[in-house]
Amino acid sequence: MLAMDHFAVRMREEAMMRERGEEISYLALATLPSAPFWARTQTKTALKARSMPSELIDAAELLVSELVTNAIQISGPVPGQVPASGLDGVERITITLRLIPGRILIEVFDNNHNPPVLADADSDAESGRGLMLVQALSKEWGHIFHPSGGKTVYCTIAAPETALAPGHG
Ligand SMILES: Nc1ncnc2c1ncn2[C@@H]1O[C@H](COP(=O)(O)OP(=O)(O)OP(=O)(O)O)[C@@H](O)[C@H]1O
Ligand SMILES: [Mg+2]
Predict the structure, then answer these.
(1) Most exposed: 41, 90, 96, 122, by fewest CB within 10 Å?
(2) How many angstroms is it from 129 CA to the middle of ligand 1?
(3) Residue ranges covered by each domain of the chain
(4) Is the CB of 116 under 6 A from ligand 1?
(5) Which residue's alpha carbon is nearest to atom 2 within ligand 1?
């Protein structure tokens, strides 16, 4: 009976994993200007460990960078405002990379309750380029709000079906 329970739990875990993909990288960062750099570094390391092609790694780094930059702009300390204490206004964001068949799923969580808004394509404004880039480079992108607060902005890019386990590249 106990063996059956273990088996059932494992089957359920495997089913969940197939649905959401295998997590290949997870990083929690403070909403500080250094966050995009560390997120890019982690992305590169994780995808290299899976022997992903360099064009794909470059694209993933760019996407992560845009999503993380947005997340720190929207939920980090107000730029130029002198904080009363060192960590005033600093929040937590997370960056998760998942491998789903034929794709890499990039997820960036932040605590802000507003949705990302794609700028008007005809606009010649200086800002509003980040999500246009995400739209152009990714296969799909979007966001989900979490009942417990905050949201995840995500996008996917095409990846080879036969991604290797770490250390086999
Ligand atoms: N994670 C987010 N949470 C809430 N709002 C967001 C988030 N990401 C983006 N937005 C909103 O969508 C808008 C467009 O984002 P986008 O990245 O395209 O442009 P930008 O960040 O304003 O400028 P740029 O990326 O060109 O420097 C942002 O100005 C912001 O209002
Ligand atoms: Mg942006």
Answers:
(1) 122
(2) 8
(3) 24-79+86-158
(4) yes
(5) 116
Mean pLDDT, rounded, for 79-103: 84
Out of 107, 131, 134, 155, mutate this one to test ligand 1's pocket (max ligand atoms within 8 Å of CB): namely 131
Distance 153 CA to ligand 1 centre (A): 11
Amino acid code (one letter) for 71: A
- pLDDT for residue 8 is more than 60: yes
CATH class of 24-79+86-158: alpha beta
Residues 98-138: pLDDT tens digits? 999 899 999 999 999 999 999 987 777 888 999 999 999 99
Nearest Cα residue to 65 out of 167, 164, 135, 134? 134
Q: Single out the residue of 27, 56, 54, 22 nearest to residue 39, CA to CA.
A: 27
Q: Enter the tokens of residue 1.
A: 């009976």
Token pair in block for residue 69 = 């930059």
Q: In whole angstroms, what separates CA 112 from the centre of its chain?
A: 15
For 85, the token pair is: 């204490």
